[in-house]
Amino acid sequence: MGGFRFKLRRTHWDRLKFIYVCCQDNCHAVDSVAKGKQDHPRMERFECHSQLVFKPSLTQRTLEITMCHRHHTSYVDLHLSSDVVAFIQERTASSTPAEIYRELQVSRPARWEDATPSQVYYQWQLANSSVWRRDPDPFNSAQYLLSERPGFITDVFIDANVRALAFYISDSINTLARDSRELAMDSTFGTNNGGLSLFSVLAEVHGTGAPLAYCFVEVFKDNSKGVRRAEPGSMIGVLAQFLQKLRALGLDPAFFGTDKDLSEIFAVRQTWPNATIQLCYWHARRAIRTKLSASQETNTQNEYKPLEAQSVIPDLEICWGSMPIRRPDGNHRYGGCACPSREQFTNFNAKGRMESKSSERETVVNIFSNHFNAHPLISDHNGTYRRSEQIHRDCAREMYSWCRTRNYFRLWAYLWVNWYQPSQWALWARSANETEIPVLKTTMILESHWRKIKHDYLHRFNRPRIDLVVWILLTRSIPDSLARMHALLKQDHRRAIASWRKAFKREWKKLASRTVDDIRRYHTDPAQWSCGCPYFLNSRFLICKHIVSCYEPVTDPINFYRGIQRQRVPPFWTHPSLTLRPEYRPTEVQSSTPANGGADSDKDIDPEAVNEELVSDSEEDIDPAVNDDESASDSGDSDDEIDKFFSDMHCFVKLMENQRSKGNRPFLKRAIARSRPMQTLVKESAIVENRRTMIKTWDNQWEHPATMYLQ
């Protein structure tokens, strides 16, 4: 009634006394407001020494009111008027807060000038909350919201002081479970006001990601310490339960991508012991760069065990860079060895800064990148296909030699303990799985997924509740992702196209325009899609100018760049119009020889044994007794096979003539490409007939194996 507003200060229940103070009393304001520490505008305050006391008497049915207050400017009510609130509620379902605020300035209802953007946003959020709020507790509300939606499997996992709410997308799981070979997992923060981490598992679909499941993980606060910290092993237990549900739904990946989060790695190992864990290439390089440029001292020498390193690098010096207590028992530990650096590392400070110079940091990262990308399916610069164990030994020896020549013992200890020892090597090196190369090299599909969720859907909300985040995922993000997934699987490029295709097109056209002098320098094998040049090894798409130059120019670029597909085994790229040039096409003998040695690729090959085997096989082929016996015993089968072959060849010629009359050039082109061995035989037979000298028995110039038997 007096134009002022009071707020409750305290209550004395024993005396039934309620004490209020003026909202503008500076004596009762919080310190940040009273001392002017906050910059945003506040209501004007005064030294009014206010007190308003209500003392009811229940027996006498009276109310005693005592008021003490110095007069000052009246309180200004900044609440929105009823007209403005009604204006906002009418447009809540169809407009954003920013659009409503702009319309408010145009329509100008009563007291519109008092409204601020934050007030409009608050009213808009209150009106929308009825759509997604099911319970005052956000966690329970999210559970109720998920239970109302068909097509989702919901579960709650608890381990010690960690609780998780997980939901699985039935559509994507049923579509991708059978053929999904690569999964990736990552977490993000800042999506909700409860401080819950959001984990997601994506499946690789044509080089992009399709969501399979989400998991909100909550760590209960320790009241005694006032911090949120998961108990040891509880995070691994919750994530393992989350992933085991995916395994029960039929997912069995060969590769699982993640960053170097130990809880995620251990959970994946518990769920899929045979899956190859592939650390993110970008995160690994960033971790090394960060460590090399860090100013704090490192103490990795306490964990460096030189005997384990020597099992991988036989010529490693035990005493160099190692603490005496970490050396093996015997002469090395007690100073009786003959190591050149024994005196230098008898008593040294194990804790110190990394020795790498700023000019050498990028060199270390580049060497690490080459080691990351090396694989048994890719030849080295000498054209040699190395086994997985050999790649590990060579890479560790190369990094050790680089550090040893510069006496960077702290750098070597860090690299060995964190990256090159066998347990760590298996997490990041692509050569850990020697049969396939994963399509995903980084976890950027997850980073892009988080960016889309936060920037496209959550940017309108300020610290939303978890049930609101779930509602946005269910109604906005997941339907869009599923529509994109089905369009990619159907190759409907009008509706969706993978973003990497534009980069692949630029890369292919750039490499195709370059001149190549001699592909033999790097032992390029286009049929097996392998090249020993450094560019191919570190290429994002496993292509280089040498490989591209071996293929015919692209005649239909639209279909080629939209339809080309990546494989995990050679050849790494396939498309119907991807045709080798005639001079690079393999012969029948070469095509039957495995690029990686076939089933015996991991065995050591003795050249003399190979020569003896070839000679024995050749002599067996020309042994008259053997040939006569075979012809006598299998003459009937041979005649039938020959007759069937001639019949098939006549049908083949008629088929080619029929398709040629119809103008079916794609069919003719592919059929001719598959008939190259027969054309080679015809060409070589003409050469044999025109020769005037005697044909040598083992003439190496013949490509077709039947030419040597011509009569």
Compile the SSE list and pairings.
Blueprint: E1 6-12, E2 17-22, H1 31-34, E3 51-57, E4 62-68, H2 82-90, H3 97-107, H4 117-132, H5 138-147, E5 152-159, E6 162-169, H6 170-176, E7 182-188, E8 197-205, E9 208-219, E10 221-222, E11 227-228, H7 234-248, E12 255-258, H8 262-271, E13 276-279, H9 281-293, H10 306-312, H11 331-334, H12 361-373, H13 388-406, H14 409-420, H15 422-428, H16 444-457, H17 466-489, H18 500-512, H19 534-537, H20 545-549, H21 557-563, E14 565-566, E15 573-574, H22 588-592, H23 607-621, H24 624-633, H25 635-661, H26 665-674, H27 676-690
Parallel strand pairs: 7-12, 12-13
Antiparallel strand pairs: 1-2, 2-3, 3-4, 5-6, 6-9, 7-8, 8-9, 10-11, 14-15
Helix pairs in contact: 3-4, 5-17, 7-8, 9-12, 12-13, 13-14, 14-15
Summarize the structure.
This protein is 43% helix and 12% strand.
What does this structure look like?
The protein has 711 residues and is an alpha+beta fold. The chain folds into 5 domains: 6-68, no CATH class; 82-132; 138-280 and 443-488, Nucleotidyltransferase, domain 5; 282-432, no CATH class; 500-595, no CATH class. The chain is 43% helix and 12% strand. It is built from 27 helices and 15 strands. The protein has a 7-stranded mixed beta sheet with strand order 5-6-9-8-7-12-13, with helices on both faces. The chain has a 4-stranded antiparallel beta sheet with strand order 1-2-3-4, with no helix packed on it. It has a two-stranded antiparallel ribbon with strand order 10-11. Helix 7 packs across helix 8 (262-271) and helix 14 (409-420) crosses helix 15 (422-428). The N and C termini lie far apart (123 Å).
